[in-house]
Amino acid sequence: MGTVSAQGLRKSFGDVQALNDVTLEVPDGSFFVVLGPSGAGKTTTLRALAGLERLDAGTVHLDGRDATHDPPAARDLAMVFQSYALYPRQTAFENIASPLRARKAPADEIRAAVAQVAELLHIERLLDRRPAQMSGGEMQRVALARALVRRPRAFLMDEPLTNLDLKLRVEMRTELTRIHRSLGGTFVYVTNDQVEALSMADHLAVLRDGTVQQVGTPTEVYERPANKWVAGFVGSPRISLLACHAEGDQLIGAEGWKLPRPQWATAEDGRPLLLGLRAEDLSVERRSDVALDGELYGLEPLGDRTLVDVKIGDAMVKVKARPTVTGTRGERMSVVVDLDRAHLFDADTGLALAGTGR
Ligand SMILES: Nc1ncnc2c1ncn2[C@@H]1O[C@H](COP(=O)(O)OP(=O)(O)OP(=O)(O)O)[C@@H](O)[C@H]1O
Ligand SMILES: [Mg+2]
After folding, report:
1. 236 and 141 in one domain?
2. b vs e for 186-201, b when ≥16 Cβ sit within 10 Å of the residue's Cβ?
3. Does 352 map to a domain?
4. Using CB atoms within 10 A of its CB, is residue 47 exposed (0-12), middle (13-18) or buried (19+)?
5. Which of 47, 166, 198, 237 would bridge with 218, disulfide CB 3.0–4.6 Å?
6. 291: which strand partners?
7. Residue 358 pLDDT > 80, yes or no?
């Protein structure tokens, strides 16, 4: 078993409220990602789960049992820190073996276990080296191996791939999800990288200012963001948000544009709204009546696609178009909108209108 749950965690450091009522339910065997920007409270949440932080309020349950007052060692959780804390005088082998040594495992069992994780993480050739003889990325993989060598109740990982170059990081994402599948076990994985979160998670919690904004599968969070902040944080390029309101059967933009009002736009007439449009749901190549008229502002070639910035009055909308798209700045350009894939948020509360999109 390996369920980890937190109810109503609160923690302040002086006048900084690092955790403000954080509740998480991590199912057994899941790859649970906590995503949020720097300072959101991700590390503090993991440290609270691990028993390294004295909480102002809240409880932690492990496998359904109240572990709030258990010391870290009694929780049977393996934590990989943001800064890999390796023993400098020991070789990679000795570092990785240390949790098994502490348990007084027999030498041949230790050798076999270390060889297995070293192979998983492609660090066999590093086993005789000390940390000073390794790169940051290599040390990070050794720290991961040290966590993976035992079978704890759950793994807590704090941005374990940050020191890797982009190519290795992308490889390690795939490796880690493969390791998760082959080892089984519960992973709680913290990152500020939304691409990493969406590609690795089976469950995703989005954290901001010590508050959980949304929990769901990556698809749910991407396709049905609970509020405009989540919509803006998840997805690249950033979702375009246009001020508007509903009136009768129309949506009317602050910039003067008009679109048919989607059936699910249940807000009362006149209430300030934000129309959220993702770049990949828009087109400047097709023709349609359901379009926003604007002018071309800029083209940014991305290789397989070109990102087109279109000015709608004073607002800017980003469109992912085919790389063949051309034009000059100031040229008139229409942005075709697929309202079934659009989002509407209440401008005051930021919350998505119920039934928004899809
Ligand atoms: N020991 C501490 N003393 C004072 N303030 C702290 C301490 N630890 C964390 N904080 C503050 O609490 C907030 C949350 O910090 P935390 O380290 O959990 O953020 P994070 O989401 O892990 O950010 P990052 O992505 O930068 O690692 C921040 O405002 C931080 O400055
Ligand atoms: Mg952190």
Report:
1. no
2. bbbbbbbbbebbbebb
3. no
4. buried
5. 198
6. 336
7. no
Pull the structure tokens for residue 293: 């008229």
Q: Is 358 among the domain residues?
A: no
Ligand nearest to the CA of 41: 1
Ligand 1 site residues (CB inside 6 A) read: 13, 16, 18, 36, 38-44, 82, 192
Average pLDDT, the chain: 93
CA 307 to chain centre: 23
- 73 and 187 inside one domain: yes
Structural domain tally of the chain?
Answer: 2
Q: What is the pLDDT of residues 26-69, one digit of tens each?
A: 999 999 999 999 999 999 999 999 999 999 999 999 999 999 99
pLDDT in tens, 194-240: 999 999 999 999 999 999 999 999 999 999 999 999 999 999 999 99
Please name the residue whose Cα sits nearest to atom 5 of ligand 1: 13
How far away, in angstroms, is 41 Cα from ligand 1 center? Answer: 6
pLDDT at 316 over 90: yes
Assess if residue 285 is contained within a domain.
yes
Domain end among 196, 229, 262: 229
Residue 298 and residue 189 share a domain = no
pLDDT at 356: 53
Indicate whether 275 belongs to any domain.
yes
Q: Give residue 315's pLDDT.
A: 94
Of 229, 260, 281, which marks where a domain is finished? 229
Mean pLDDT along residues 66-78? 95
Copy the structure tokens of residue 201: 């998670």
Q: 326: domain range?
A: 230-346
- Residue whose Cα lies nearest atom 17 of ligand 1: it is 43
